[in-house]
């Protein structure tokens, strides 16, 4: 029988891309969490290559690999930490790349993965919808089996994803319009302000904190309108898309807000005022920070610092000049971060709220954890504990390694590591002085902080399964 080797080669060439495409489609439906990691790694590599181009550098020379990689990680993970001065190091092309990168990264790990998975597989599979709902659906209250009411709302995932994109464009557009007059009044040329206003808006809403002009926010230290607009942008980005989605539907019906929305708003506001009170108390007599200001300036800057340590990343005062006690307060706020499925980082405010409610319920001797007439299931509490343990482990290991490499004071290392983990962007000045090995460790910390806790929570929720039997009970001694 005659053979057709040429035809076989052609068939293999046609079938090979199809097989690769099918494997990618299977990955989007079988393991969206791993697909999300793959997406972010791919984006980081692409933006590293873009930022390494001579055209991206202000001096026309190729940026060192460590600096390009770190900036790409900080951009995609919307962190704001940098080993170089963004304003003077990058050209207009480089800043456009960073602007695009923070908006892509700000859409979130699982949200972005769901959108790309939808494009590839033409539809979201049930498993992908469950994971998208676990991170984004404000009405989902537990992992594992989904009750009838939540199953119906899985059809809203597509609408929620559209809300993410529209919210990003709308909020950033409004913030940019509000910032534009202030930038002109501050002496920025109108043509330059047309670019800097959207840049600042994107950095505020995505909680990144990069600044396009030399000196950062120092030239605007007395412009309370501009700083207030930035705080509003940071707040809207940090509360999370599920909260924005819920408020859009039921803004004035507080009783109808989902439990997630109530916990996020209440905890965010409490931390905002508590952080401001702490900074005001600790720094009012520090001549290098708030001590040289009048009462009004001191109070306003304390609130601004409290808002930025939650994940905003902008700063007016020199973080390196804060007292050690204030650095500890900043570490605590940065570790908590913002809301779930938001542009903020950290362990998330709802995680803190669930653990606080669990402690309160245990102290009261209640058999279950309750809030606003709702019972919080035990698997949510386990996820919260897992997220905190995972975050503390990342911070501890990174602090030990970077301290050993740099031999810098552990207080400065700890602050910058938590800033990296919480994707905040504030720095004592240490990050810019790190050697290349320490820079790579810090970049890995940013990456794990941005996607680690989210994918861990999604994986725990998605793999929860019912057990038809129970083992004998035995109580170990605790405490």
UniProtKB/TrEMBL annotation:
Q: Where are the transmembrane segments?
A: 33-53, 65-84, 96-120, 169-188, 224-247, 259-280, 327-360, 380-401, 438-462
Cellular compartments per GO CC: plasma membrane
Q: What is this protein called?
A: Ktr system potassium uptake protein B
Q: Which GO terms describe its biological process?
A: metal ion transport
Q: Which Pfam families match?
A: TrkH
Q: Where in the cell is it found?
A: Cell membrane
Q: Which PANTHER family match?
A: KTR SYSTEM POTASSIUM UPTAKE PROTEIN B, TRK SYSTEM POTASSIUM UPTAKE PROTEIN TRKG-RELATED
* Keywords, in A-Z order: Cell membrane, Ion transport, Membrane, Transmembrane, Transmembrane helix, Transport
**Which InterPro entries does the annotation name?**
Cat_transpt (IPR003445)
Query: Topology with regard to the membrane?
Result: Multi-pass membrane protein
Quote one Gene Ontology molecular function term: monoatomic cation transmembrane transporter activity
Domain of life according to the entry: Bacteria
């Amino acid at each position: 029988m005659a053979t057709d080797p040429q035809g076989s080669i052609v068939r293999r060439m046609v079938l090979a891309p199809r097989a690769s495409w099918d494997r990618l489609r299977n990955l989007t439906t079988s393991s969206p969490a791993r697909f999300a990691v793959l997406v972010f790694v791919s984006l980081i590599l692409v933006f590293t290559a873009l930022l390494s181009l001579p055209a991206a550098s202000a001096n026309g020379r190729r940026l060192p690999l460590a600096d390009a990689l770190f900036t790409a990680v900080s951009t995609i993970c919307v962190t704001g930490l940098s080993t170089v001065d963004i304003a003077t190091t990058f050209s207009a092309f480089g800043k456009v790349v960073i602007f695009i990168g923070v908006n892509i990264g700000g859409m979130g790990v699982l949200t972005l993965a769901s959108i790309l998975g939808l494009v590839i597989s033409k539809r979201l599979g049930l498993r992908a919808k469950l994971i998208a709902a676990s991170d984004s659906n404000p009405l989902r209250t537990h992992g594992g089996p989904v009750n009838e009411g939540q199953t119906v709302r899985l059809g809203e995932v597509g609408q929620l994803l559209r809300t993410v994109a529209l919210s990003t464009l709308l909020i950033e557009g409004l913030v940019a319009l509000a910032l534009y007059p202030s930038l002109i009044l501050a002496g920025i040329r109108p043509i330059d302000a047309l670019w800097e206003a959207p840049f600042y808006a994107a950095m505020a809403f995505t909680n990144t904190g990069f600044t396009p002009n030399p000196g950062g926010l120092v030239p605007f230290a007395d412009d309370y309108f501009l700083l207030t607009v930035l705080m509003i942008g940071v707040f809207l980005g940090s509360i999370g898309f599920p909260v924005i989605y819920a408020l859009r539907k039921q803004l004035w019906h507080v009783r109808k807000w989902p439990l997630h929305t109530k916990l996020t708003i209440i905890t965010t506001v409490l931390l905002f005022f508590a952080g401001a009170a702490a900074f005001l108390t600790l720094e009012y007599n520090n001549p290098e920070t708030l001590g040289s200001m009048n009462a009004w300036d001191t109070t306003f800057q304390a609130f601004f610092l409290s808002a930025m340590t939650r994940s905003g990343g902008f700063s007016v005062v020199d973080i390196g000049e804060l007292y050690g006690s204030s650095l500890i307060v900043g570490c605590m706020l940065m570790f908590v971060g913002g809301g779930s499925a938001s542009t903020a980082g950290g362990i998330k405010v709802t995680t803190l709220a669930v653990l606080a409610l669990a402690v309160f319920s245990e102290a009261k001797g209640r058999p279950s954890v309750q809030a606003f007439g709702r019972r919080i299931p035990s698997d949510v509490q386990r996820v919260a504990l897992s997220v905190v343990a995972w975050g503390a482990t990342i911070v501890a290991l990174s602090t030990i390694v970077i301290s050993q490499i740099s031999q810098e004071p552990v207080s400065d290392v700890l602050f910058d590591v938590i800033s990296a983990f919480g994707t905040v962007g504030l720095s004592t000045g240490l990050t810019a002085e790190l050697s290349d090995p320490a820079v790579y460790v810090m970049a890995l910390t940013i990456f794990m902080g941005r996607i680690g806790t989210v994918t861990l929570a999604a994986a725990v929720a998605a793999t929860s399964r019912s057990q038809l039997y129970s083992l004998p009970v035995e109580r170990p001694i605790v405490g």
